[in-house]
Amino acid sequence: MMRAHQPILAPGGRALSLQALARAGATLAGRLVAVDDRQARFDGSAAANVAAGDAFATRIRTMLDELIARSSRPAPPAEPDEVDRPVELDPPAAVELGELGAVVWCTGFTGDFSWLDPALLDDAGRPRHTGCAGALPCLWYVGLRWLTHRGSATLPGIPKDAAAVADAFTAHLRAGTHATRGAR
Question: Helical H runs in 1-45?
């Protein structure tokens, strides 16, 4: 339930966390389990969902820190991020439907590919591809959902697809032709 009077944006390139949403006026609730003509009811998973999000963010930060350390390149120390500050949760077990001002349904995200030539997109507006190879010669993708495997759109899954693109590009360079389509 949102009581904020302005759009909620992550300031200065920072992450937008469930805690930041709560500080901006959103009421965090658990998983929706029932709705009738007067109220929506939720389970008690709000705190667990926040903890799971924090644990995932910690794993990603640790992986990135390890990658930076292995690269032997200088990097500034991590800055404290407001989104990491804990919040007191008081998730409702139920909400009267008439009290809802807005609903933020957190189920994931998708890309905006409207800037690509429509010939490169499928009927759902997503890039057409075979494996990592796009619909044109010398066009490869990394980071798309289910590109070559379930984890393709996740940070831990991207290296496998990036390696496939690197192999396809290397093969393209060795072939010396623009006709090479790439990884499949």
Answer: 18-23
Token pair 């949403």 in the structure block, residue: 21
Find residue 32's DSSP bridge partners: 42
Q: Is the pTM of this model over 0.90?
A: no
Cα angle 11, 14, 20 (rounded to 5 degrees) comes to 75
| Distance (Å, whole) CA 113 – CA 121 | 8
Q: pLDDT per residue over 91-132, tens digit each? A: 999 999 888 776 766 655 567 788 888 999 999 889 999 999
- Helical H segments across the chain, by residue range: 18-23, 46-71, 158-175
Sorted by where each begins, the domain ranges of the chain are 11-99, 118-175
- Report residue 44 as tokens: 């008690």
* Of 96, 102, 141, residue with least CA distance to 24: 102
Q: What is the pLDDT of residues 129-139, one digit of tens each?
A: 999 999 988 88
Question: Sorting pLDDT into bands at 50, 70 and 90, what band is 76?
Answer: confident
Token code pair at residue 127: 């890039």
Strand (E) or helix (H) holding 41: strand 39-42
Question: Among residues 136, 114, 137, which one has the least CA distance to residue 126?
Answer: 114
